[in-house]
Amino acid sequence: MKIALDAMGGDFAPQAAVDGAVLAAEKLAGSAQIVLIGQESAVRPLLEKYGAAAESLLLVPASQVIEMGEHPAKAYQQKQDSSIAVGYRMLHAGEVEAFCSAGNTGAMLVGAMFSVKTVSGVLRPAIANFVPKMGGGYGILLDVGANAECKPEMLEQFGELGSLYAQYVLGIEKPTVGLMNLGEEEGKGTANAQAAHQLLKVNPHIHFFGNLEGRDLFNSKADVIVCDGYTGNVILKMAESIYDILAEKQMHDPFFDKFNYEAIGGSPILGINDNAIIGHGVSTPQAICNMLLQGYQMAKSGIADQIKSTFKS
Question: Helix H segments across 79-217?
Fold first, then answer.
C-alpha cells in the first residue's frame, strides 16, 4: 500500500511534511510506503539529512506549489504540475491508496471534484472531523466546511456518509446519528433542519437519534453529528480554541488533550471515489504523521468502496 503526502502543503512545509512522513514511515514499516510529492530541490536535501531513516520514502517531483492564498479553482487548473494536482492524478490512477495534504483546503476540494470525482448518487461531498466523547473514543461531525448551505437531502446523506465512516473506520458497530439543532423537539430549527429531520427519521440505512443541542456534542447520544458546513466549522474552531486556551493556562487533561488537532491530524473528504484527507494549515510533524496514519486506516478499511456500494444500491 502507498499513502501519498503533499510535501509542499502547510505553513511549515516542506520541513514539517518530511519530519512527519519519517515518523509515519517508522510506524507503518511493513504495512505501507509513504510517497512524498513536491519540489525535488526543496525536499531531497531534507530527506538526505535523515539518512537510512528516510530510505523507505519515495519522492515524486512536482515543480509547482498552490499557495494558501490562491484562488482554489484557478490555481488547480493553471498549476497542473503542483503537488496537489500530481497527488490527485496518482490517486485517480490507482498509484496510491490515499492522498493527504495540509495545503490549500479549497484546492484539495476542487481537486477531489475534478479528478477522483464525487460518488454517483452523492449530492455533495462533506468534510468530516472528529469529536472526542466523554465515554471514550470519538464521534464524527460533518460537514465542517465544504458546504456552507445545505439542502435537507444533503444533510440526510451526511448522516449516511458519517455512519459508514463510523462503522468501517472507527469500528462502531451501530453508530447513532443526531442532527445538530437549537432544540431537541422534532419541530425545532429552520425549515431546512425540520425537513432534514423528517428525512433522517425514515432513512432505513441509519440509526437516527433525533435532534441534538450543542451541549450534546461530547456525550454518548450520537456517534454521528450532522450539520451544515457553516455550523460545523464554527463548532470545530470553537473546540480548537478550548484546547489552545487550556494549553496557554498550562492546564492539561486527557479528555481536553483530544481537542488538539494533532491528535487526529486531518479531516477526510467523504463522498468521493477515493481516500483524501485535508490537514490543518499549521500542521506539525506529529499532525502530519497522524494524518498519514489516518489515510492508511481509511485505505485499509475500504471505506471508499463501502460508500460507493451503498449509494450505488
Answer: 83-93, 105-111, 152-168, 191-202
